[in-house]
Amino acid sequence: MPAQPRQTTLTSLSLTSLFTASFIFRLTTSFGALCDSAAVNPVVSTPLNLPTSLASRKRFTPSIILDGGTGFLKVGYAAQNFPEFQYPSIVGRPILRSEEKGNDGLVIKDIMCGDEAAAARTMLQISYPMENGIVKKWDDMQHLWDYTFYEKMKVDPTGRKILLTEPPMNPLRNREKMCEVMFERYQFGGVYVAIQAVLALYAQAGLSSGVVVDSGDGVTHIVPVYESVVLNHLTRRLDVAGRDVTRNLIALLLRRGYALNRTADFETVRQIKEKLCYVSYDLELDQRLSEDTTVLVESYTLPDGRVIRVGSERFEAPECLFQPHLVDVEQPGIAEFLFNTIQAADVDVRSSLFKAIVLSGGSSMYPGLPSRLEKELKQLWLTKVLGGNPERLGKFKVRIEDPPRRRHMVFLGGAVLANIMADKENMWISKAEWEEQGAARCLEKLGPR
């Protein structure tokens, strides 16, 4: 492969052993049976090969994996199948300070986080600590982390190791701040920060080359990897993801006469989106069906008991992923962005990338998205490369990996990596290094963003 500037090796670990370990890990866990239920109710699973008694687990404390996304926070331990806890990345404060209990007896506190805030959202002003994958409100983020470690996991972080995830191109100051909080507020003994899209590739065993399309709630990243090397100069960021689809659905429902524009309603509409929305394979056909029939109409019961009917909005809301101008974003759609990214790579690299497109993140879960993506990639190849000659299209090979567990692939990749790194102290930033060498020197250990 020709020399590529600005490349980053995935990690100083042996990638061969990494992918082998990942493959063995997948074989020893029953993903298929757990995926459907895990999408709704996270599975609590015992770390593999770890002692289960409390006393012995104290002697062998597995690393914590914290995958903080714009929409959801997922947390668990190294080598687990799925996150032990998963809940919305939200912080709520009471609208009316006089209320101490909700109608269902739920205690209303001054600050509520995660699933507690989601349960009481009708009585709270909801805040989102992250926007487009980047932490914007650090005080709220720390409230969410406090809730995670002390109320959900019930652990003492002192001296433990933690693997954090971050989006590609995360500002250096944000990476530094994350580590600073982990060492100084929580007294962790070791910290490692990994790029989310790369962890998703770790979880897809056997792949050393491919393109990760990681679409979460706040941002979509397209990250090409060739022979275990991240092509940083080709990494792209699309500022359209799940939250934009939710906002688009709110606007579409408003046109139908349903006003769902309170902060508490946002979570309700997100749930409508996850239950009813899909990506249209043939947009014109679905539009005709929605105009001439009621076959696409579905009913949804709101928390207050009202029933709404959702029709064309089911496919119109996610369409902004392919047509960002619908939500006032001046960027190519996800298919065109992906195509342009691969075509910008060296000629001898492109074939490997087209044959291993890995979908990851909650916003890749829409029914119909993989097939629509494949269809548009082939159409782009036909028009931009073949000049419209369909006879040669048969030679174009594209493969889209859409594993059912992709909602949790970043966490799973982190769990695999942290398990391999368990006895490799030099891979982690230690608290002693942080205090002695300073942030800048320590962050060099993690490599470029």
TrEMBL record:
GO BP, sorted A to Z: Arp2/3 complex-mediated actin nucleation
InterPro entries: Actin (IPR004000), Actin/actin-like_CS (IPR020902), ATPase_NBD (IPR043129)
SMART domains xrefs: ACTIN
Pfam family, one: Actin
Principal subcellular localisation of the protein: cytoplasm
Keyword Nucleus set for record: no
Location in or out of the cell: Cytoplasm, Cytoskeleton
Superkingdom field: Eukaryota
A GO cellular-component term linked to this record: cytoskeleton
Single GO molecular function: ATP binding
UniProt keywords, alphabetically: Actin-binding, ATP-binding, Cytoplasm, Cytoskeleton, Nucleotide-binding
Family affiliation: Belongs to the actin family. ARP2 subfamily.
Protein name: Actin-related protein 2
